[in-house]
Design a protein that fits this description.
Oligomer: homodimer
GO biological process, one term (chains A, B): coenzyme A biosynthetic process
GO molecular function, one term (chains A, B): phosphopantothenate--cysteine ligase activity
CATH topology of one domain in chain A: Rossmann fold
CATH superfamily of one domain in chain A: CoaB-like
Helix content of chain A: 25-40%
Order of helices and strands of chain A: HHEEEHEHEEHEHEEEHEHEEEH
Largest sheet of chain A: 8 strands, mixed
Strand content of chain A: 15-25%
Pathway (chains A, B): Cofactor biosynthesis; coenzyme A biosynthesis; CoA from (R)-pantothenate: step 2/5
Largest interface: A-B, 62 and 62 residues
Family (chains A, B): Belongs to the PPC synthetase family.
Number of helices of chain A: 9
CATH architecture of one domain in chain A: 3-Layer(aba) Sandwich
Distance between the termini of chain A: 24 Å
Structural class of chain A: alpha/beta
CATH class of one domain in chain A: Alpha Beta
Number of strands of chain A: 14
Keywords (chains A, B): Coenzyme A biosynthesis, Ligase
Chain lengths: 316, 316
């Protein structure tokens, strides 16, 4: 272990020690182990990807009324999950509660208002315009879960997210190069350390409020060096300023030694992304001539290919 | 107009002037006016309540990646809306996008996974255990909307919330004492003024972050004194510390001259609330001997009675 990763490990230990304990830790762990065991024992040994999705919250009070949040609909993670399942992967979907779910992208905002009708008190009918969307949300999603190809695990706070990610990474250690991390979640960079946090609701009425936030320890380094050093690892970089995007993605690639960074800009992220890696930058676009096409179709295709090469090279 | 409300009006004018403009303002206004017209022309003249629900977000960046949020599931507002509709009110439900919807309280967290099955590719079936919940979400909700008893208007930011509330209050002015505001939304006390906000994503990597937040101008005063002075007005006070709750609710009652303040504590808010008003404090509990009972059943019952008295007194 290098001295750098040792240092980051220490930083993490103190972060975790001061975090509120993860509820249902045993339950999560048992679901996780069952899922990994099932998929590792499949013929040929399954590839398993952990897709993280949605933003993490940072509580500002211990009995939390206020928190800082990161904007993320979870669309990227949900769509990518479907693509990974279609490509034969087993997916651990670590998602922010309330964000977009796999197979549910085509549902309207208010599905119970718009998708259904009751022609009489006994029978429910799906409106023709939404029948494909509902079928996908129910049939395809239930099938993926029933067949053990999809495990959904929800989080809300940065504390839950990092503790669950560590559990998953540790549980996937034996899967080695066949495991992958696809870290699409929008993780907070700043937080209020739990121990220095006020217990009760911050009172208004006494003028402006100044909040001082500490940096969240960089999880990527420790994930790469300690938690799951053999896994294929993809991180994301979102910026609103296109001028600094590629530069920041390239820096992240070098600093955290991930296998690729998916660079995306807030306004154009549904049209194109840039995959930044040591073999150069590749622009990935959605197929413009197919209105159903999404950028994740081509993105996951590219990453699955890269993962195949990585697995082959690891075995030689 | 007193000098105090004049002052607050100024504060509000500058808040609104520096806010990003409300999208779809014309569309919202036309929906609103149609809804109010329909209900005012019903026999006897309808009572109309504006129920606000969920938390407001406070963007930290103009192209918003990070924001401060207030914890609120929207359960209180959604359940209260159903009770108001049952009591014969027309309800304008001003809610935070993604929070709990009226008639949807009994649905599970992941309804498309848990409520339905497709026995074949053509027919959808509701699991018996969720049939009542789905029927309520679809039939009852659609009926309330189709009959013009429920209008749903979504918001996300504090800017949208306050601008929409002003639109609603102004549109309801002619309904006079028959209108009611039931302000259950968790509105931010602090915000970053739009004009002093950074355009792009705040960069991490340069040490801790200090945020300075200004106080949101108190909307309650101006709602009471200018926007809708004749409406019956109920505000909410949520605290995590029971010791200061009633004191703070009483202060709010006096300061904003609302007709009642519903005081609730974070941990016990589903079991009991205290209605604080000039006629004394009343503890309202849910019926413990009925597991289906919720605290909103008794709360709305009490407030509808109070509203009736208020209307009678206004006419004499």
């Amino acid at each position: 272990m290098s001295s750098i990763s040792g240092m980051e490990d220490d930083e993490f230990s103190s972060f975790f020690e001061s975090s509120p304990t993860l509820k249902n830790k045993e339950e999560i762990l048992s679901k996780l182990n069952r899922f990994i065991e099932l998929n590792s024992s499949r013929q040929g040994g399954k590839r398993i990807v952990c897709v993280t999705s949605g933003g993490t919250t940072v509580p500002l009070e211990q009995r939390c009324v206020r928190y800082i949040d990161n904007f993320s609909s979870g669309n990227r993670g949900a769509a990518s999950t479907e693509n990974f399942v279609n490509a034969g992967y087993a997916v651990i979907f670590l998602y922010r509660r309330g964000t977009c779910q796999p197979y549910c992208r085509s549902l309207p905002d208010d599905p119970f208002l718009e998708c259904f009708e009751f022609p009489d008190a006994k029978n429910i009918r799906v409106h023709a315009s939404h029948s494909e969307a509902v079928k996908m949300a129910v049939m395809d999603q239930q099938a993926a879960i029933a067949e053990g190809r999809l495990l959904k695990l929800p989080f809300s706070t940065i504390y839950e997210y990092l503790q669950m990610l560590r559990l998953i990474a540790t549980a996937l250690k034996d899967v080695g190069p066949c495991s992958m991390f696809y870290l699409a979640a929008a993780v907070s960079d700043f937080y209020v350390p739990w121990t220095s946090m006020t217990e009760h609701k911050i009172q208004s009425g006494s003028g402006p409020l100044d909040i001082s936030l500490a940096q969240v320890p960089k999880m990527l380094s420790v994930l790469r060096s300690n938690w799951a050093p053999k896994a294929f690892c993809i991180s994301f970089k979102l910026e609103t300023d296109s001028k600094i995007l590629i530069e920041k993605a390239t820096k992240a690639l070098q600093k955290y030694k991930v296998h690729a960074v998916v660079a995306n800009e807030l306004l154009t992220r549904k049209e194109e992304v840039v995959v930044v890696s040591n073999s150069g930058n590749v622009v990935v676009r959605r197929d413009c001539d197919n209105p159903e096409s999404i950028v994740e179709d081509n993105l996951i295709h590219l990453l699955v290919d890269r993962h195949s090469t990585y697995i082959k090279e690891s075995h030689t």
